[in-house]
Amino acid sequence: MVKLTIDNCEVMVPEHTTILDAAKSAGIQIPTLCYLRDLNEIGGCRVCVVEVEGCDQLVAACNNYVLDGMVVHTNSPKAREARRTNVQLLLSQHDSRCTSCVRSGNCNLQTIANDLGIFYLPYEQHLAREGWDFDFPIIRDNDKCIKCMRCIKVCESVQGLGIWDLTNRATHTAVGTRGRAPIGKTDCVACGQCITHCPTGALRERDDTETVFDAIADPDKIVLVQIAPAVRSAWGEELGISREEATVERLACALRRVGFEYVFDTDFSADLTIMEEGSELLERLGKAAKGEGDSRGWPMFTSCCPGWVRFVKARYPEFVDRLSTSKSPQQMFGAIAKTYYAKVLGVEPERLFVVSVMPCTAKKAECALPSMMGEDGAPDVDVALTVREMVRMIRASHVSVDTLVEEPLDTPLGFGTGAGVIFGATGGVMEAAVRSAYYLVTGKNPDADFFTDVRGLEGWKEAVADIDGTKVRVAVAHGLGNAARLLDAIRDGRVRYDFVEVMACPGGCVGGGGQPIHDGCELAAERGQVLWSLDAKADIRFSHENPDVQACYREFLGAPLSPLAEELLHTDHHA
Ligand code: HC0
Ligand code: SF4
């Protein structure tokens, strides 16, 4: 152990502890801006500088370690003055029009500048005023970038993509796409992890809220909204509603007050996905067992995460045929809404305007894919909003959240089982699929918790699911860096699996790039627990037992993989 003094407090911490963590253990919060634990510990922003007795120079607290007998002052006049100057220099290249910034009120730079009493700038301001492709789901505004490198690090180290890089040199240093390519021409999968790791408003999603408000105001449109599984784990965070209170039923109430006519659940179509994808897997396994040829190759990959699908297309094109042809639950919902549900309502499909609320930015790109259009060329899903956009709509609609009550979702597309709910956490799609595969093979249900081996936050998990004697080798990865390691191992023949789930974001959609932002805090584990406990409490925990899914097959689709199901619910990833 090391004994030192911080701001007149005696502190004992293990060796190799940073000054930042040692101070934290004594209840002293040194401000940071660029720091991200284990990911970005470069001390670049110089906001965490502290004075150490005996040192001529101030030191960054985030990447300097404690020494026995050290005496540290975190807020001495010298440290405070340097911190203020460093922030003022950052602001001299920063577009500080906070009132028109999406991160106003949730911005570390704004908080720190205020806390330091920076109410004027002694330096002349220089802004870059660069252009951007504002149709892309991820928007970059370099006049709000503080060059902290967090986006570069998360894209490179966690996602293994390396879309962002430093451009130019010296005082012209900036962050942009590697090689300055237009963002749409890069391999960016639009996962949005750069947004949730950005400390300022330099990165944000394309805002589609006005398009939705316009549709709501259009008397000819019937506006439906679907709520993704992981949304229910996080929507209350920015509105100050506790996890216990922030139920999907209370969210339904909020969305109706915003003006949505019908509120449905993507969990419904997650159950539908299990029927289609599970049947596809079993059909392929059956053919393989009979020795019938299958040119697509093994394993079969899930296809519900558009970030992952885009990653395969861009970086591992030789594996595209291994993706399940099943559309994602978001897209299955849209396709069913504009056909089956239009019939239920007795209206022309073009009157329906389908919105989805997703924890995801990549879903904006997915719903715009040419392969995700209906027969008439109209999109199955008209607009995909992030949770953050939805929260802005709730606020802009003057909904006071303390008056929200629990209201049931609409029928028949508003009911999902416990298996549908867990889609939003890593391992959930696999677990839901194995539960129903057991039934589809044996005709009887296993215990709903018979296969829990792929839960948890390990980056690459593998297991063998025993389906009444048939062994199915499965793997689950989350975070594209982990996915790349897994794909390399498959390609090199080091591992062999039958079925693999990949979600692009760490933790799965609960950690998605469209979720509320809490600077420097990873909440995927906590949010995932919300979903696992909703499943544990659910009355129905098997996708094949969803009565609304059963009715949809009985009244409309016929059976899984029927010609109509193939037409509406499956896609060609080469299209
Ligand atoms: Fe997900 Fe999904 S689980 S990708 O993360 O499969 O966004 O929550 O909606 O579509 O259901 C996101 C979340 C979904 C889809 C579902 C899948
Ligand atoms: Fe979107 Fe979920 Fe995939 Fe992340 S893991 S890109 S949130 S679908």
UniProtKB/TrEMBL annotation:
Organism, scientific name: Collinsella aerofaciens (strain ATCC 25986 / DSM 3979 / JCM 10188 / KCTC 3647 / NCTC 11838 / VPI 1003)
Localization terms from the record: Membrane
Cofactor(s) demanded: [4Fe-4S] cluster; [2Fe-2S] cluster
Chief location bin: membrane
Protein name: 2Fe-2S iron-sulfur cluster binding domain-containing protein
Keyword NAD: yes
A single GO BP: ATP synthesis coupled electron transport
Alphabetical UniProt keywords: 2Fe-2S, 4Fe-4S, Iron, Iron-sulfur, Membrane, Metal-binding, NAD, Repeat, Translocase
